[in-house]
Amino acid sequence: MVEHRVYQALAQPVVGHLDPYFFEVVCEVRELLRNVFGTRNEITLAVSGTGSSGMETAVGNFVEPESKFAVFANGFFCDRLTEMGKRQGANVVRLEKPWGEVFEADEAADFIDREKPDVVAFVHAETSAGALQNPKPICDAAHQADAIVIADTVTSLGAVPVNVDENGIDVAYSCTQKGLSCPPGLSPITVSPRAADRLKARKTPVREWYLDLKLLIDYYDGRKYHHTASATMFYGLCEALRTIMDEGMEQRFERHVHAHKLLVKAFVDLGLTMHVREGHRIPNLNTPRVPVGVDDAKVRKHLLDHHGIEIAGGFGQLAGKIFRIGLMGPLATESNVEFFMEAFREALGR
Ligand SMILES: Cc1ncc(COP(=O)(O)O)c(C=O)c1O
Question: Which of 71, 77, 99 to mutate to test the pocket of ligand 1 (most atoms within 8 A of CB)?
Answer without folding.
Answer: 77
